[in-house]
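Final report, Chapter 2: Outcomes

The project's central promise was a pipeline that accepts a single protein chain and returns its three-dimensional structure in a standardized token representation, suitable for archiving and comparison. That pipeline is now operational. To close this chapter, we reproduce one record exactly as it appears in the project archive, with the input sequence first and the structure output second.
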Amino acid sequence: MITSLDDYSRFMLYAVLIKTETSWAHILALQTVILRYGLPYTYYVNSHSIFRFVRGRDSLWYKHHLLTDEATPQWKQALQDCNVKVTYALSPQAKGRIERLFGTLQDRLVKEMRLRGIRTIEEANRFLEEYLPLYNSRFAVCPKRKDNLHRPVGRGVNLDAILCIKTERTLRNDFTVAHNHKLYQIEDKVRGVKVMVQDRLDGSLVMTYKGERLRFREITTRPVKEQPVSVRIRKPYTPPSDHPWRRGFKFGIHKYERGKPIESKI
């Protein structure tokens, strides 16, 4: 389950049930929260590999994980492009409010869905849209300041280009790009080796080079590779031993024995 909770008012901004926790699901949650309420100043998350790069070390005697900021995950890169700060909770006590929310939902939400006969994730997510206002009206508290600190999205900010999965791909010599087991033909002339492929939340695909959008088309049928023309090389002709060329010369017939002529007729 993915939830987003306001730290001051305990107002639940977003909640959804998912089968697998992926970067796609968290980026979709970001998009929903930003479009509804605006850009927050800080996101407070745990040290999951989706939010922070985890480098593991395995050996015969020990096994542990190292947290590093050398590589930026897709989720964190999207927030950095939106100028939103990310803070990591390094202990269970640091994220006590969200953990208490999970405990409440596991108790009350499961019972409510059982009473309504909900059996699938799709039905549960539709019920969550009705349950969120009820939960906030009962458990949310009134903060000291009622000002909304969420910032509006600027006019020049393209959220579709930010909230997406970006992958760098190699541009081949024939101006083709392989991505997700498909082949695409770039129709613009690009003087580069790498292009950026954006898998957007609406299912569309965008390719850019140095910020410029490229025109491309999918190659549905692979071109037939031309077979090289085989050239047959004839071996040099070697006359047999009884060939007329070996019987004699123009002026006579010679018989040889151990390299010496023993008989000559003219």
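Archive annotation: The chain has two domains: 2-58+65-139, 161-218.
This record, like all others produced under the grant, will remain available to the consortium after the project formally closes.
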